[in-house]
Design a protein that fits this description.
Elements lengths: L9 H15 L6 H16 L12 H15 L4 H15 L4 H7 L2 H16 L9 H11 L2 H17 L6 H21 L3 H15 L1 H13 L1 H22 L2 E8 L2 H11 L10 E8 L5 H15 L1 E9 L12 E6 L5 E8 H9 L1 H4 L10 H12 L7 H5 L10 E5 L5 E5 L4 H8 L1 H5 L1 E6 L2 E3 L11 E5 L16 H32 L6 H10 L5 H9 L5 H36 L7 E3 L8 E3 L11 E5 L5 E5 L3 H9 L4 E6 L7 E10 L4 H11 L3 E11 L2 E10 L2 H12 L4 E6 L1
Helix pairs in contact: 1-3, 2-4, 3-4, 3-8, 4-6, 5-6, 6-7, 6-8, 8-9, 8-10, 9-10, 10-11, 11-13, 12-14, 19-21, 21-23
Length: 734
């Protein structure tokens, strides 16, 4: 059956809309513009390019409604109107951007391109509730006028889908309007559009609640009108005496705002105490605005008792979007609460007309990327309504030029740094996915891991269980998360390799019956040119170094070192042995008890006291006296159990004996740290290293050193010097 293009009263509606549009743009549209638009649309209909959409809606009437709404609610603008009427045909391929540029101008082609860009996002099936979608949409729009057209078009669509038979379609459109377009309208100061979008969304998404509120408001309409008239009567009389020029409007809050407050406060409609709202609009010069508003405020609060906790002063400090007004809630007749808004004509125009009005006035610096940009727009565009679009069409709208927004195949949206690659995105999703990433399908096309993502890309990460992170991956990422995870994965892999490499070397040393000294091995590894001991063991694991050759080189190195030390240190060792033997435990260097000397004693090995330590003696079961440090843990236990066997002891002051002391050292696992410690101890004339054991883990080492030293003072000095060594973190006596 051949269904005519226009159905019902659509043709009559179209003619009415065209007359309104021509009237609104009569000073901007040329006869050529009208003929070109008419010719393109007629040709598209004839060739089947402007058919009804899948929901049965007539696109000609829809976009004509939008064009008229833009000229009436925002600002009359030729480029916006023509772009609104023709962008759908450019998207379908009926007319190209070059043709539009030739028939009209670059500005219209630019707007059409932005509208096409934005329309492509809906194919991604993204969640419009996501804040990132808002940002991506603004990035794709390229021009603030594109965003305005989208918002107004959504309002036009919402106004005509009330009786649509496809409930799913109506709910989807309403949900998008509530979570995407209403917030956008609010950000741009289009408060009237924002409120209507929210009311219509509530109507379609929760019709029962909407109908109840509308019915209740309808039943009380006459009562409210009479109440408002009685309420404003004394206010008018007082304002007349001041000589101020003013207008008073009475209104009921929007249906959506009433519902939100009912939910928030947990009350029904009867419990809403600020259902009424009165607006006092003052006609006064800009320099007298604050004074006039506060005069009106004083008049209202003199007549009616104010709820001071509900005072909202957005005149002294306006909202970030430029909104200025005084709000106060007062108790009116019959003990009913009424909200009173006080503002000037300029402030009211900003609040009602939104963006177009914002452009005429200089706003305050605001927070957030979009608000900050809008502030810049207001500062630049103070030329007035006639110059608004001329100025703004040349402004850059790169609000999120440092960010990129990409989709997953399921429509999830993610934000990354500009310059982010496939590998960055893989690590952003999950570390395991990043470590196994081999590339991605970007909008269906296979790309490498270093492919730089663009806003709007749909990215499907490809992985392999055999893939592992490599050092060169650090050249392919820009995000800190990816860089850190790659380094961590490489370090973990190298630690495992190093552990295996060390085990292999130790096993081969044992097989060849070669004794290994950790300090000598560390010195050997450093001599080979390795900055880190783990690098050495990794190369053994990777077979870059041959184990047998390495052992041969180590044996030769130890031999050379031993021969060199033997000739250099024989005399020193001889002296040191004599020094150690110089004072025996039988020497009279302790005073035990009441100045008693010559008693047999032993220095306890659990705490290794040295000259200068505070000490006590303990009489053992064999009669010998064991000398403990005053803070020894074992001594504390003995004092509790055998207090009668504790005997006072102190040093006699005679020196010449060396004592054993144990030190615990923690530091960075650097190849030269052990050599530096041993060198420092050997340089001390009053100390000698007896034994050293080293354990290392995750880039740190823990060493236990046994040294012989003559006094506590010299031990403390040695500890201080060791703490200054590069890489040493802790040194403590044990």
């Amino acid at each position: 059956m051949n269904i005519p293009y226009f159905q019902g009263n659509e043709l009559a509606e179209l003619k009415d809309l065209m007359r309104v549009l021509l009237r609104n743009l009569r000073e901007q549209l040329s006869l050529s513009d009208v003929n070109q638009v008419d010719s393109i649309i007629r040709g598209a209909v004839s060739n089947g390019h402007y058919s009804r959409d899948k929901y049965g809606l007539n696109p000609i009437n829809r976009f004509m409604r939008t064009a008229v709404a833009v000229t009436e609610n925002i600002v009359p603008d030729r480029s916006m109107a023509i772009a609104t009427l023709l962008f759908n045909l450019a998207r379908s391929g009926y007319v190209s951007l070059d043709e539009l540029r030739t028939k009209f101008d670059d500005d219209i082609a630019k707007l059409v391109h932005g509208l096409i860009n934005v329309s492509e996002l809906y194919r991604k099936q993204a969640a419009v509730e996501d804040d990132n979608f808002h940002k991506l949409l603004l990035s794709f729009a390229e021009d603030i006028r594109v965003v305005i057209i989208m918002i107004v078009d959504r309002l036009s669509l919402m106004r005509v889908i009330n009786a649509h038979t496809d409930e799913k379609f109506v709910r989807e459109i309403s949900t998008e309007s509530r979570f995407l377009y209403a917030p956008l309208a609010h950000k741009l100061g289009l408060y009237g559009i924002k409120s209507e979008l929210e009311d219509l969304s509530l109507k379609y998404l929760n019709n029962k609640v909407f109908t109840q509120i509308v019915k209740k408001l309808s039943e009380t309409k006459a009562m409210r009108e009479n109440y408002i008239a009685d309420f404003v009567k004394p206010i008018k009389a007082a304002l007349d005496k001041t000589g101020l020029r003013y207008e008073i409007k009475g209104r009921t809050k929007t249906i959506n705002s009433i519902w939100n407050k009912m939910v928030k406060k947990g009350v029904d409609l009867k419990g809403m105490y600020d259902l009424f709202a009165i607006r006092i609009i003052l006609d006064t010069p800009k320099e007298d605005e604050k004074k006039a508003c506060w005069i009106a405020y004083s008049i209202v609060t003199d007549i009616y008792m104010a709820n001071v906790s509900r005072l909202r002063d957005w005149i002294t400090i306006p909202k970030s979007n430029g909104y200025e007004s005084l709000h106060i809630t007062v108790r009116g007749p019959e003990d009913k609460w009424v909200e009173v808004q006080i503002r000037t004509r300029r402030m009211d125009e900003i609040a009602e007309r939104g963006l177009a009005a914002h452009w005429r006035y200089k706003g305050i610096k605001s927070e957030g990327e979009i608000d900050h940009w809008m502030n810049n727009v207001r500062e630049v565009l103070e030329a007035g309504a006639s110059g608004q679009m001329e100025l703004i069409r040349n402004m850059n709208m790169n609000l999120y030029e440092e960010e990129v927004f990409v989709f997953t195949p399921k429509g999830d949206l993610f934000k990354l740094r500009q310059g982010a690659t496939v590998l960055d995105f893989a690590f952003h999703i999950h570390t395991k996915i990043g470590c196994r990433c081999t590339g991605a399908k970007v909008d269906g096309k296979t790309q490498k891991i270093n492919y730089v993502l663009k806003s709007g890309d749909t990215v499907e990460i490809m992985t392999s269980t055999t893939q592992v992170p490599r050092q060169d991956w650090l050249n392919y990422v820009v995000t800190a998360k990816a860089r850190n995870k790659i380094k961590q994965a490489i370090n973990e892999a190298n630690l495992k390799k190093a552990e295996i490499g060390r085990e292999t070397l130790m096993r081969r040393f044992k097989n060849r019956k070669v004794e290994v000294d950790d300090a000598m091995l560390a010195k050997f590894i450093k001599k080979q040119g390795f900055k880190n001991i783990n690098e050495f063991f990794v190369e053994l694991h990777d077979k870059t170094l041959d184990v047998s050759d390495t052992i041969d080189q180590y044996v030769e190195f130890v031999k050379r070192q031993t021969e060199s030390v033997a000739t250099r240190e024989t005399a020193e060792n001889f002296v040191l042995v004599n020094k150690t033997a110089e004072a025996r435990e039988s020497d009279d260097i302790l005073v035990i008890g009441e100045n008693v000397k010559g008693i047999n004693y032993k220095l306890s090995k659990c705490c290794n006291p040295i000259y200068g330590d505070r000490i006590l003696g303990f009489i053992a079961s064999d009669g010998a006296i064991k000398i403990h440090r005053h803070d020894c843990g074992n001594l504390k236990h003995l004092k509790e159990k055998y207090p009668y066997r504790i005997i006072k002891s102190e040093w006699s002051g005679r020196l010449g004996k060396h004592y054993v002391a144990s030190l615990r050292v923690v530091g960075q696992d650097d190849i030269g740290i052990v050599a530096n410690m041993t060198s420092l101890i050997n340089k001390e004339g009053n100390a000698m290293l007896r034994n050293i054991t080293i354990n290392s883990l995750d880039g740190l080492f823990e060493g236990h050193l046994v040294i012989s030293i003559d006094t506590l003072e010299n031990l403390d000095n040695l500890i201080k010097k060791m703490r200054t060594l590069k890489g040493v973190k802790e040194v403590e006596r044990t």
